[in-house]
Write a structure and sequence with these properties.
51 residues; mainly alpha; 86% helix; rod-shaped
């Protein structure tokens, strides 16, 4: 749409793919840390309530 050369589109596609990969890896770390926090909170609850 910006009337740029074809090579620009190829480079931006590579950058877009790298950004998508980075986002996917970041989501994996976020989910993993959320699981660890939930286990820690549950462990603290069990310890505190003597269940």
């Amino acid at each position: 749409m910006a009337q740029l050369p074809h090579g620009v589109r190829i480079l931006t596609d590579y950058l877009d793919a790298a950004g998508n990969t980075t986002a996917a890896i970041g989501k994996g770390f976020a989910i993993g840390s959320a699981c660890l926090v939930s286990l820690a909170l549950f462990g603290a609850f069990v310890t505190r309530t003597h269940v």
